[in-house]
UniProtKB/TrEMBL annotation:
Entry protein name: DNA-binding transcriptional regulator NtrC
Keyword terms: Activator, ATP-binding, Cytoplasm, DNA-binding, Nitrogen fixation, Nucleotide-binding, Phosphoprotein, Repressor, Transcription, Transcription regulation, Two-component regulatory system
Main function: Member of the two-component regulatory system NtrB/NtrC, which controls expression of the nitrogen-regulated (ntr) genes in response to nitrogen limitation. Phosphorylated NtrC binds directly to DNA and stimulates the formation of open promoter-sigma54-RNA polymerase complexes.
Database matches in PROSITE patterns: RESPONSE_REGULATORY (PS50110), SIGMA54_INTERACT_1 (PS00675), SIGMA54_INTERACT_2 (PS00676), SIGMA54_INTERACT_3 (PS00688), SIGMA54_INTERACT_4 (PS50045)
Domain of life per record: Bacteria
GO molecular function, a single term: ATP binding
Compartments, record wording: Cytoplasm
Annotated GO biological process: regulation of DNA-templated transcription; regulation of nitrogen utilization
Every Sigma-54 factor interaction domain range: 142-370
Annotated Response regulatory domain residues: 6-120
Annotated Gene Ontology cellular component terms: cytoplasm
Length: 481
C-alpha cells in the first residue's frame, strides 16, 4: 500500500533533494523541496507538510534556528534533522529543539525513509519532552565524527531529559567515564553532584561501606557515621565504574537499593531515601558473567535500560587524527609548545591498533608535547614511543589511506542513495581513480607509454584507448613513444 503524507525536504545540495525526494515519492509521499530557510518558511505555509526534513547548514542561516517556533505553531509536525557537522553538540541541539530524529550525514537512505514512516506512524516524535533551552554546550568533551560516535551522540542526546539507567560498554580507555560525565553535566541533574565509584579500585570488603555508608563502630576503624556514595550523590548521578567487578553480595544489596530507592548504612537500621541517576560502566562481558554466576541477571536488566556501546579506537580510525590534534591543541592551551603532525606520523597513528584506546593516544600526545624538541611530530619519533611489533609492517602503505578514501566515497554514494539501478558504481570509481593512476605513472616514466603500460600491467593499446576515453591529452602528458 502506498504511504500517504506530505514531506518537505530542505537541503542546499540539489543531489540530496533529488535523491531523497525521489525515494520518498516512490513510497507514495507527496514531496516538495527547498534550498534555503526562506524557501522553507514559504513552503511550510503553502504546502503544510506532515514531516519536515531539514539540513542544518543552509545558505541563509542555521537550519536549527526557528525550529522551536515552527513546532510551537505546528505541534503536529515531525522534524528530521540532517547534518554534516556530526558533533555531540548538533545531536543535542536537534533533540532539544524537539526534532523527532537526527541523522548525521552521510546517512543511509533506508534509515531516512524508516524515520519518515516512524514519524508519521507515531503521530508525533518520541522526544516530546519540553525542550530545555538552557543547556551549556560549549567545550563539549567528546571528540570524534565517525559513524560509531554519531550513534553514541544520538543516544546521549536522547537520555538528557530523563532519568533512565545507562550502561556504558567499551574497552578500557574508550571514554566511558567521559560519556557518563557528559550525560550528567548536560542533563537535568547538572547542578547536583556527579559521584564516581570504581568497583575495581576498592577492596571487596569495603565496597558496601563505600556505597551505602556506615555507622560509627560498624567495623574496626569506623570512627563516625559516614555517608556513602549514594547519599553523596543525592539529586545527582552515581557513576558505578567497572560494575562487572562488583562482588555478588554487594550486587544483591545494590539491587535492593535500586528497587526501593532507599539505602541503609552498614551497621545501621534506619533507611534514607535517595534520588540518584545510575550510570554504570564495564569493559567486561556481563552476559558471560551472568552465565558463570558472577553477575546477577536481575541487576543487569535494571542497569541496562539504555546501553551505550563505545567503539574501540581501532574501529574508528577516522577519528584518530582528529583526537591526536585535539590532544596536541589542549597541550598547547596548557602552555606547552604547539606541535603538529607530519603526514607519515599521521599514517602511522592511523595504522596502529591502540590497545589502550583513546587514553593511550592521549598519553602519547601529551608525552610528545612535553618531551619532543621539534615542532613537528614525525613517524620516527612515534616509532620510538609505540611498540613497533604492534604496528603492521605495511603501516605506511598508502593503501590504508586509499582504502579509507574509497570506503568513504562508497558510503557517500550509497548513503545518499545516488545508486539507481541504472548506475554503475564500479565504473564511476574507476573513472575517479584511473586518470590519476595513469597520469602519475606516465609522469614517473617521462611519458613513455610502453613503460607505463608495463608498470600498470596492462596492454599498451588498452592504455591508449583509456587515455582517449578519459579525455587525457597524450601530448600534455608528454607521452613519448
Ligand atoms: N571521545 C573522546 N574525546 C576526547 N577525549 C576522550 C574521548 N574518549 C576518551 N577520552 C579521554 O581518554 C581518557 C580515557 O577516557 P575514560 O577514562 O573516560 O575511559 P574509560 O573507558 O572510562 O576507561 P576505563 O575503562 O579504563 O576506566 C580520558 O582522559 C578521556 O578524557
Amino acid at each position: 500500500m502506498a504511504a500517504t503524507g506530505a514531506i518537505l525536504v530542505v537541503d542546499d545540495d540539489p543531489a540530496i533533494c533529488v535523491v531523497v525526494g525521489e525515494a520518498l515519492r516512490r513510497q507514495g509521499y507527496r514531496v516538495k523541496t527547498a534550498a534555503s530557510i526562506r524557501e522553507r518558511s514559504a513552503l511550510l505555509e503553502s504546502f503544510s507538510p506532515d514531516v519536515l526534513i531539514t539540513d542544518v547548514m543552509l545558505p541563509d542561516g542555521d537550519g536549527l534556528d526557528g525550529i522551536a517556533e515552527i513546532l510551537e505553531r505546528r505541534p503536529a509536525l515531525s522534524i528530521i534533522i540532517l547534518s554534516a557537522q556530526n558533533t555531540l553538540n548538533t545531536a543535542i541541539r536537534a533533540t532539544e529543539k524537539g526534532a523527532f530524529e537526527y541523522l548525521p550525514k552521510p546517512f543511509d537512505l533506508n534509515e531516512l525513509t524508516r524515520a519518515v514512516s516512524d514519524a508519521l506512524g507515531s503521530g508525533k516524535g518520541a522526544d516530546e519532552e519540553a525542550p530545555d533551552a538552557g543547556l551549556p554546550h560549549d567545550g563539549l568533551p567528546l571528540v570524534g565524527r565517525s559513524p560509531a560516535m554519531q550513534e553514541v551522540y544520538r543516544t546521549i542526546a536522547r537520555v538528557l531529559s530523563n532519568d533512565l539507567s545507562i550502561l556504558v560498554l567499551g574497552e578500557s580507555g574508550t571514554g566511558k567515564e567521559l560519556v557518563a560525565e557528559a550525560i550528567h553535566s548536560l542533563g537535568q541533574r547538572r547542578t547536583k553532584p556527579f559521584v564516581p565509584i570504581n568497583m575495581a579500585a576498592i577492596p571487596r570488603e569495603l565496597i558496601e561501606a563505600e556505597l551505602f555508608g556506615y555507622e560509627k563502630g560498624a567495623f574496626t576503624g569506623a570512627h563516625a557515621r559516614t555517608a556513602g556514595k549514594f547519599e553523596q550523590a543525592q539529586g545527582g548521578t552515581l557513576f558505578l565504574d567497572e560494575i562487572g567487578d562488583m562482588p555478588m553480595e554487594a550486587q544483591t544489596r545494590l539491587l535492593r537499593v535500586l528497587q526501593s530507592g532507599e539505602v541503609t548504612t552498614v551497621g545501621g537500621s534506619k533507611s534514607v531515601k535517595v534520588n540518584v541517576r545510575i550510570i554504570a560502566a564495564t569493559n567486561k562481558d556481563l552476559p558471560k558473567l551472568i552465565e558463570d554466576n558472577r553477575f546477577r541477571q536481575d541487576l543487569y536488566y535494571r542497569l541496562n535500560v539504555v546501553p551505550i556501546a563505545l567503539p574501540a579506537l581501532r574501529e574508528r580510525r577516522e577519528d584518530v587524527i582528529l583526537l591526536a590534534r585535539h590532544f596536541l591543541d589542549r597541550a598547547a592551551q596548557e602552555g606547552l609548545p604547539r606541535k603538529s603532525l607530519s603526514d607519515d606520523a599521521a599514517q602511522l597513528l592511523m595504522a596502529y591498533h591502540w590497545p589502550g584506546n583513546v587514553r593511550e593516544l592521549q598519553n602519547l600526545m601529551q608525552r610528545l608535547a612535553v618531551l619532543s624538541r621539534e615542532n613537528m611530530i614525525t613517524a620516527d619519533m612515534l616509532r620510538n614511543s609505540l611498540p613497533l611489533e604492534a604496528v603492521p609492517a605495511d603501516y605506511a602503505a598508502p593503501g590504508d589511506l586509499l582504502g579509507q578514501a574509497v570506503r568513504e566515497w562508497a558510503k557517500r554514494q550509497l548513503g545518499i542513495g545516488l545508486t539507481q539501478p541504472n548506475r554503475n558504481l564500479h565504473d564511476d570509481l574507476l573513472a575517479v581513480v584511473e586518470p590519476i593512476l595513469f597520469q602519475e605513472t606516465l609522469a614517473s616514466v617521462d611519458g613513455n607509454q610502453i613503460r607505463a603500460a608495463g608498470l600498470l600491467g596492462i596492454n599498451r593499446n588498452t592504455l591508449r584507448k583509456k587515455l582517449t576515453d578519459y579525455g587525457l591529452d597524450p601530448l600534455q602528458l608528454r607521452i613519448a613513444e
